[in-house]
Design a protein that fits this description.
Layout (H helix, E strand, L loop, with lengths): L18 H13 L7 H4 L1 E7 L6 H12 L5 E5 L2 E7 L2 H36 L4 H36 L9 H28 L7 E6 L1 H30 L2 H24 L6 H27 L5 H33 L2 H38 L1
Antiparallel strand pairs: 1-3, 1-4, 2-3
Length: 384
């Protein structure tokens, strides 16, 4: 016997259903503040070691986390090799930021020094030129300010690197010496940290050969900025295409709102389930974006482009079709999510988790938010 569900869109208070996805969005925005970046975006260490260890990936992850005092290391184990990814060392990341600041002050200092030299030459030929002298005085003040900035940045960098290389001294009035100290200190500290990581890993796993790669936090920020631009461009293109299809602002806004809200809900779930934001999870977010647009456009076309029955009946027909599609996808990704937890496959865990929780959010966003907005728009047009 087939169970017939009531048509929720005949409810006289249907417009208030929109409050459900809005509430989910606000809660998810608050929760998403707890998202952490993985090594691909936040910087970190990636290693591949050759080993015959019989330990499972989850056992290795536990040992690495304990020995290196790092949360949630990513472990990928295959025949004879183990891939290990750990978060960036906080002191090294902070030192790198101070080093970048130092380079900025040093670049400014060099430019001002060239200008100061030119003004000095000008005054030798024309000592009474008040304009050149004023410019020289202004440049002299800028030189002093940037020299002070270099010294402050270097001092902060060396303070962060002290646990690795001990105290370092330098002449704060000599920019060339400070540059040499800043570069060598960070390089030496990175080598010391690498040796510490290798030595501690030897106590976890026996291995003879390895590859070691350090991803800087600066590179991660660049990648993150690029990805943000890609997502923004994707939303702009989606908005244009949807506007062309429906030729109306309301359904276009509803579809873009639905897609954006699904991603926000997924980000909130990532914070709850400790799924880091990285290249892998962003791939899941882009996949989710495709699923979301499918169901949102389905609702819009069924309600606005078809003429059989009432708008409520067409919305309910789209709801049944969309729920079948989404339920099948949820079951598939739930199985993948469970398998990735059992087998400890971080890549599958991140992708499946993002898409799974995003699709669950999509049910509420599309059928209580997007579809309701489009339905109200269709009913308004019908009365006109």
């Amino acid at each position: 016997m087939q169970i017939k569900l009531p048509n929720i869109y005949h409810n006289k208070n249907v417009k208030f259903f929109v409050l459900i996805p809005i509430a989910m969005m606000l809660i998810s925005i608050y929760l998403s503040q707890g998202i952490v970046l993985d090594s691909s975006l936040g910087g970190g260490i990636s290693m591949v070691i050759q080993t015959n260890s019989t330990l499972s990936a989850s056992q290795i992850a536990s040992l690495v986390s304990s020995k290196l005092n790092t949360p949630s290391p990513s472990i990928v184990k295959s025949s004879g090799t183990v891939g290990i990814t750990i978060a960036a060392n906080t002191s090294l990341s902070n030192a790198e930021n101070y080093l970048i600041n130092f380079y900025s002050y040093n670049s400014n200092y060099t430019s001002y020094y060239v200008n100061y030299t030119n003004y000095s030459i000008g005054l030798q030929h024309n000592p009474s030129n008040a304009t050149i002298r004023a410019l020289q005085n202004k440049t002299s003040a800028a030189l002093a300010a940037n020299l002070k900035g270099m010294s402050s940045s270097l001092s902060s960098e060396l303070q962060e690197l002290k646990p690795f290389i001990g105290p370092e001294s330098y002449n704060g009035s000599n920019p060339g010496e400070m540059l040499a100290v800043a570069q060598s200190a960070y390089s030496n500290a990175s080598k010391v940290y690498q040796n510490r990581v290798i030595n501690k890993l030897h106590t976890v796993l026996p291995f003879t050969s390895y590859s070691y790669e350090q991803v800087s936090a600066i590179q991660g920020k660049f990648f993150l900025g690029t990805i943000e631009q890609i997502i923004i461009i994707a939303f702009i293109l989606i908005s244009i295409v949807v506007l062309i299809i429906f030729r109306s602002i309301v359904p276009s806004f509803a579809i873009v709102f639905g897609a954006a809200n699904d991603i926000i809900v997924a980000l909130g779930a990532m914070a709850i389930f400790k799924i880091p934001l990285g290249v892998t999870s962003i791939a899941g977010l882009l996949m989710l974006l495709g699923y979301s647009i499918d169901t949102d456009v389905l609702a819009g076309i069924r309600i606005l482009k078809r003429s059989e029955g009432t708008p409520e009946d067409r919305a309910y027909s789209a709801f049944k079709t969309g729920m079948t599609m989404t339920s099948a996808a949820i079951i598939s990704f739930a199985v993948l999510f469970a398998v990735s937890l059992i087998a400890y496959v971080p890549t599958y865990y991140e992708i499946a988790g993002v898409v799974l929780f995003g699709l669950i959010g999509d049910i509420f966003t599309t059928w209580f938010g997007n579809a309701v907005m489009i339905l109200m728009h269709a009913k308004r047009k019908r009365r006109m």
